Amino acid sequence: MAANFRAVTRGRSHPERFSKMCIVVEEIDETQFWFELIEEANLLEQSAYADIKNEIDELVKIFTTSKANMKK
Fold first, then answer.
1. Residue 29 and residue 44: Cα distance in Å, rounded?
2. By CB count within 10 A, which of 2, 12, 20, 36 is most buried?
3. What is the pLDDT of residues 51-60, one digit of tens each?
4. What's the CA gap between 35 and 69, in Å, rounded?
5. By the 8 A CB rule, do 63 and 25 touch?
6. What domains, with CATH codes, occur in the chain?
7. What is the C-alpha to C-alpha distance for residues 7 and 18, in angstroms, rounded to an integer?
């Protein structure tokens, strides 16, 4: 996700930056999906879930909002 976001900042045109932002949103969504599977499988200590989940949820909101703003 981080490398893809860096690509957004280096895009040569608005359509290219928007396309790359779409990839960022897909990647953070996939990260959220895998984290949910890890949580369901109890692969981490329970105390770690809340903080990580909050961080992922915030990133989803940030990048989804950014993508929506770019589309306008």
1. 20
2. 20
3. 899 999 999 9
4. 27
5. yes
6. 2-71 (1.20.1440.60)
7. 10
In three-state secondary structure terms, 1 is coil
Residues 6+ apart with CB under 8 A from 39: 49, 53
C-alpha closest to that of 66 among 27, 32, 22, 31: 22
DSSP code per residue over 20-72 = HHHHHHHHHHHHHHHHHHHHHTT-S-HHHHHHHHHHHHHHHHHHHHHHHHHH-
Return the H-helix or E-strand segment holding 11. none
Residue among 70, 60, 72 at smallest CA distance from 24: 60
Q: Which residue has the tokens 């932002």?
A: 21
